[in-house]
Structures are given as C-alpha cells and as structure tokens.
Amino acid sequence: MKDYRIPVGLLLSSLLPLLLMPLMAIFLFAGKGGPTHFLQALGSPDAQFALRFSLLIAFATSLINAVLGTFAAYVLSKYRFPGREALLVVVNLPVAIPTVVVGTSLILLWGPIGLLGKYLDPMGIRPMFAPAGVLLAHLFVTFPYMLGAVKPVLDEQEGGYEEAAYTMGASPWQTFRFVLLPTLRGGLLSGTLLTFAHSLGEFGATVMVSGNLRLRTQTAPLFIFAQFEAGNIEVANAVASVLAVISFLLFFGLLRFAGKER
Amino acid sequence: MGLLAVFLYAVWPWLPGQRGTSRTVIVYGFSILGEVMNSRIFPAFQAEWQKQTGEHIEMVSAFAGSGTVTHQIKMGVPAQLAILATGLDAKTLIDERLATLEGLPEHGVVNRTPFVILTRPGNPRGIRDFADLAEQEVAIVHPDPLTSGGAQWAVLAEYASALYTGGSPEQAGQRLEKIWRHVVSQASSAQSARTQFNSGLGDALVTYEQDLLRDARAGRLEGEIVYPVSTILSEHTVVVIPRNVSLQDRPLVDAFAQFLWSARAQELFAEAGFRSVDERYNLSFRAIEKPFTIDDLGGWPRARTEIIEAIWQNKVLAVLGK
After folding, report:
1. How many angstroms separate the CA atoms of B206 and B113, rounded?
2. How many domains is chain A built from?
C-alpha cells in the first residue's frame, strides 16, 4: 500500500476549517444545554412535525424524480430530435437559478392570484402554501441531479446490447428494464441520494411557497431558521444535528450497499 | 432496514388511526410575537375552547417581518387572522379589501410597546434620552425603515419626541438628522439590528421595549434599558382575512379574535413584556413621562407621508447622502 499519511493529512487539515469544524459546531451547540434540554427540544410537536414532513417530502421528491429524471435521461440520450440541445440546457437550469426565484415563479404561476392558480382557486385547488407546493418546489430544484447522474452512464453505453435486444424482438420497455436498467444501478443510487439530500436541506424555494406554517408546511430547515431568528440556537441545532445524523446514516448505508453490489 | 425505519418514522402520524382530523385556526404574525403566541396564547385558547365546546382544535401559525406577512397575504397565503406591527400594513390590506377590522375591539389594536434605547452594560456613555443620541458622539445601530416596521416606529419616536418635549418642528427635524448622522448600521429588521448590537457593534440601539423586557425577565439581557422622556407606543393590529374563513369556521375564528382581548390573553401578553390595551395589567411596567401614539401624530397615512417620507427620506437621508 502506498504511504497515505502525507496526502491524507493534507486533505484532512484543509477540510478541517472548511467542513469538519462547522459540522462539529452543530453538535457542540446542540448539546450545550445538556441531554434533557436536547431531548426536550427534539420532542416538541413542532420539531417532530418539521422532521417528519421534511423526510416525507424528501422521499416523495426522490421517488418522483428518480422515475422522471431517468426517463428524461433516456429520451435525451437515446433519441435525436430538433431542439434536443436546447431542452438539455433547460432541464439543467434549476441548479443555476436562485432558489428564491424558483419559489417566486411557482407562486406567480400556481398561487391563488397566479397565472394558472387563479383558475384553480375557485375549484378549491390551492397547491401553493400547502404540502403540494413544497413538493412542486423540491421537484423543480432537484430535477437536474437524477439526470446528471444517469445520463452520462446511458451516453457511454455501446448501442450493441440494445440493438441485440431489439433484434430478438424485445420491446423498448423490455430493453430498458432488462438491458439498460441493470447498468444504471450506480447512477440511480447516487442520483437518488443527491436528490434526497438536497430536498432535506432545501430552504430558499420552500420558504417562499410553503407559507412557513408550523405543523402544516414547515420543513426542518425552515423550523431551524425560525428558531435561530427567535434566538433559540440550541433548539435549532438540536434539529440540525438530527438532520445531519440522518443524512450521514443514509449516505453511509447506501454507499456500503453500493459497495457490495459491485 | 435503516431506510425503512426512517420512512416509518416519517409517515407515522399520517398512518390510519393515528389522529383524528381537527379544525384549525391559521394565524400569521410579525416576528416578535412568535414566542408568546406559540407558547402562551395558543395553548390558553385551545384549553378554553375545549372547555366551552369539548372540541379539540389546532393552531397553525407563521411568523415573519410585518411587511413580509402583509405581502404574503396579498400573494394568497391561507391566513385567517393576522397580527401586524404597524397600522399601515393593516391599512394596506384593508384598502385592498383583503382584511377587515369589523367587530374587533380597540380598532384591532391588541397590545402596545414603547420604543426605548438599549445601551452597553452600565451605560458608559451616559445616554438618558433621544436628545443624547443626537448631541453626543455615539454609534447607533438602527433597523432600516425601508424594510422594518419597527424602524418606522423608531423614526417617529426620534422625531416626535422633540415635539412633545417642547421643541419646534425645525428642532425635531434637526434631532432626527443628528441622530441619523450617528447611525453606523441599518439592519433589515429589528431582530437583526438586535443581533448586530449583541455581537458588539455600536453604543446604542433603538428598539421595542418588549424585546428587551423578555430577555431581562429570562435573566439574559446584556445592557441597560434607557427610557426616553418622551417616546411612541407602537400598536399591534389584528385583522381578519374573510376570504380564508369558511362559513362554519367563522365562529371559531371570531372566538379566537375576541379571546385576544380577554383578561387571560391580555395578562399573558403583559407577562411577555407587551403593554396591555387595558391599563389594569400595566402596573408592573415603568411609566413613561410623555408617551404618545400614532393617533397623536394624525394617524399612520399622515405620519408616513409627513414624517417618514417628507422628513426622514427626503431631507435627512438626502443631507446625509445615505
């Protein structure tokens, strides 16, 4: 084995102020009031709701974008059509647009006085300032991750297996299911993970479209911000530390799972 | 396995049989109200409603800057009742027919708090009044009147306090200009101005008494509260948003609105550092020599055009080149 001490030491010392110390600070401040305080902060109905709601939205976002993103990657990778390049740029835009702008435009579209929303409102359909609005925002913001993870894998594939499948009479769906999908496992996994993690931490768009209603649309990051604003830094950090632990465990578990698969 | 556990934890409250659906009241409010509403007023009303009707209800709420709340309501958030930091925000909503004061006591004003000065511990610069902020070389941290409701109250307090202590309008304008010469930072909200001051910036901060009393009672106030000879009492206005109240929820929302003026609620507000609209609950507060209200200045629309716009914005800011 090559001597790893110098490169690893260099890496760790450069990551210390950038990544590791800020992460440690979350836990330090969360535990400042002692374990009873910590559990009390976590056990409050607001904190419990915010955590659960964030997780649910993250699961739903990952699921929908896993399917939609893979489909988009498939179409954009396997078909050549006019406007493909333009579409490719457009679907990648959400990462570059400030999330607050995403929130605003969703409100101006789906809100009660929005372009489409004003026709839905009389029917009692109000996606904004409701869980549906949060989901819409998260789908938008995280869309490029799945695409970015899956499309390069599809692009690199030789056309041979697919053509072989077709000549044997497989339908496009069968070809996708039995020939392409197995090779996509790694891409799907990392795409879903990124989507999940980003959704769990999303703030800018959520604060706009959710209405920030506690016990109804307040996600964990919004709860954390509200607690910071009110000066309850320990409560904020208690929830933040739980989010960090959940993310860490999920990443760790899935990475190990992915390691076994290879 | 781990993933499944996390998923189960997340969906648990929504699984069948976990909870009945209860009616909700949706309340939006400006920031400094958050704590007292969530931890005191809501539980008290829930208990009272349950006692009267046997029904369990849920209180759903959101708190942000008063201007933000006003704008959110224009954009269509489902607020059924809102509490705003200035009557001006309430008026904007009422003028657009989005909100109403109908049936509310005291023209919707639910509580008050005077504007005071916070100095460093021991008051090393010997600040006693707004006049000292103008005459002495002090560094002042101030919220920005363009974005903060609290800052607008503060500008009115600084200007009109000169009038109420025998000054002429010219002298009042000079006082405001001198004070603003000493402003070293304009934070976007009263809350963030406080954070800046706490982190060591400046010699003095102009802010809500309630915010300071709350900390003083919790034993975590660093600094000294200075009561000016004359200052404004900010008034916080309740409005109902009829568009978001269904016919069958109307009695519930009305009951909550009325509850805010009940003896119990006014007592809770006073305990949290807000001055009650009923003087009987204000005995523990320090008396202010020459207090005044927005009505004394001719109401919000007039104070806004004649003081904040004509004097602060067009004269003071123009002279200072800020």
Report:
1. 13
2. 1
Question: A159-187: per-residue pLDDT in tens?
Answer: 777 788 888 888 888 888 888 888 888 88
The CA distance from A17 to A12, in Å, is 9
Give the residue ranges of chain B where pLDDT is below 50: none
Fold observed for domain B16-111+235-281: D-Maltodextrin-Binding Protein; domain 2 (3.40.190)
Nearest chain A alpha carbon to B72: A211
Q: Could A113 and B78 be called an inter-chain contact, meaning their C-beta atoms sit closer than 8 Å? A: no
CATH class held by domain B114-234+289-320 = alpha beta
Complex ipTM more than 0.90, yes or no: no
Q: Whose CA is closest to B134, among B170, B175, B190, B171?
A: B175
- Alpha-carbon gap: A256 to the closest alpha carbon of chain B (Å): 12
Tens of pLDDT along B247-262?
999 999 999 999 999 9
Residue with tokens 């692009």: A155
pTM metric for this prediction: 0.81
Nearest CA distance, B162 vs chain A (angstrom): 33
Mutation for B interface: A108, A109, A214, A217, most B CBs within 10 A: A214
Residue B248 in 3-state DSSP? coil
Instruction: Report yes or no: B34 at the A interface, CB cutoff 8 Å.
Output: yes
